[in-house]
Amino acid sequence: MRFKNIRAFEFIALMSFTMSLVAVSIDAVLPALPAIALELGFITLQHSQMVVSLFVLGMVFGELLFGPLCDANGRRPALVLGMGVFCLGTTIAMGADNFEQMGLPRVLQGLGAAGPKIVCRAVIRDRFEGAAMARMMSLIFTVFILVPMIAPMIGQSLLLAAGWRWIFGLYLFWAGIAGLWFMIRQPETLARDQRVPLSLKRLCLNSGRIFKSRKVMAYTCASGMVFGTQLLFLATAQAVFSQIYHVGSMFAVYFAVLAASLGLATLINSRLVATCGMHKMVHYGAVGHISFAGLLFVASLVTDPGPTFVWFMVFQFMMHFCMGIVFGNLGALAMQPLGRIAGLGASVMAAVSSLIAVLFATLCGWFYDATLLPLALGYFAAGMVTLQLLRIGHRASGDVVYPVNLSDAPVPN
Predict the structure, then answer these.
(1) What CATH number corresponds to the domain at position 368?
(2) Cβ atoms within 10 Å, residue 5
(3) What is the extent of the structural domain holding 90?
(4) Structural domain tally of the chain?
(5) Cα–Cα–Cα angle for 98, 27, 165, rounded to 5 degrees
(6) 189 in a domain, yes or no?
């Protein structure tokens, strides 16, 4: 098949739409969690949160799988496999009758959705590096963030019109469009002579090199804490808006307002990163997150169950804005030293950060008691840990992570 050169505008749109399969799979179902819990017989709020957390848990395993596949067979075959697994899990979930039948399909969905997520990151790394990659990722994330803004509205509309199972039909439609668009328009970006054949020994050696890089791992763990903060909000958002603030059907609208803060942050970041630098941007973003999380924590201490709705929205908006600044640069900072093993690097980074996020969000979410205090404390603690990890990453050496060569002999640093 002969490809025409894909222009920057279409490339941004394609990467955003394909990567947004993860976001729509999480966000569109949020308004339907009470209905799913009622129909499938969930016992506690924590069971409802697992509908979100199990998806991300599946991504952990998928991210470990698809990185090596990307580097060994190319980007396009890995995307096709991921889309296929995702559609299989989605089809099974549509017919679920209890929590157990919903749990495994959500893991399969996460496993498959990791494919397009890893593939898109690797394709971006193939085409860009340094500040140019950070700017491109910020632009992509700016478009991508439209999905969390509209996904709950679409999910709520489908819930009211046809029931929650049709939300999973939306997932099938989204995956089909993204897969066809990618396969028709995006050429392979990893040349055959640059591919790293699958070898357990080589994978272990190369993974070991990645784990030994203090810079890569510090930024990866920081990404996990930021993602964990977002996942904690996603897992508890529907309960907070309905139980504490009683906003009812306006949940999707307020959720979209908070999602817009991430889009605003990434748009501003794309303008400033070339002049201010990625290190300064992530530092300022982390300090801002800590400040507003601290204000929310203090307000939650002196008021029960939390501050007024207006102040809650202000604090959340600013926290999400700061998280957007941090998240828009961490991926680029961690990917810089990886070179030829960008696929494996993206895989390891995504798996580690997703695992940290799931553990953090599940632990904090378990303490949710219809007040904001445990959530605010979790946000604040995550910000403090993130700031310390950023300092470790900034101080670490800037060495390149060299891959093991084809004879399995380590390449000297």
Answers:
(1) 1.20.1250.20
(2) 7
(3) 8-182+200-395
(4) 1
(5) 40
(6) no
Specify the pLDDT at position 378: 93
| Count of residues making up the chain | 413
Query: Packing angle between helix 99-127 and helix 309-335, nearest 10 degrees?
Result: 50
Question: Per residue in 233-263, is it b (16+ CB within 10 Å) or e — as a string?
Answer: bbbbbbbbbbebbeeeeebbebbbebbbbbb
In a domain, 407, yes or no: no
- Mean pLDDT calculated for residue range 281-290: 92
Contact status, residue 281 vs residue 364, Cβ threshold 8 Å = no
pLDDT at 330: 82
- Residue at 3 is within a domain: no
Report which of 180, 134, 114 is spatially closest to residue 343, judged by C-alpha positions.
Answer: 114
The pLDDT score that the predictor gives to residue 410 is 42
Helix axes of 130-144 and 309-335: crossing angle, nearest 10 degrees: 140
**The whole model's pTM is what?**
0.78
Domain membership flag for residue 138: yes
User: Which pLDDT value is given to residue 38?
Assistant: 83
Q: Return d(Cα 74, Cα 80) in angstroms, integer.
A: 11
Structure tokens at 105: 């399909």
| Whether 261 contacts 376, CB under 8 Å | no
Sign (positive or negative) of CA dihedral 308, 310, 316, 318: negative
pLDDT band at 211 (very low <50, low <70, confident <90, very high): confident
At which residue do the structure tokens 């890995």 appear?
78
- At 1, the pLDDT band (50, 70, 90 cuts) reads very low
Nearest to 145 by CA among 229, 31, 271, 264: 264
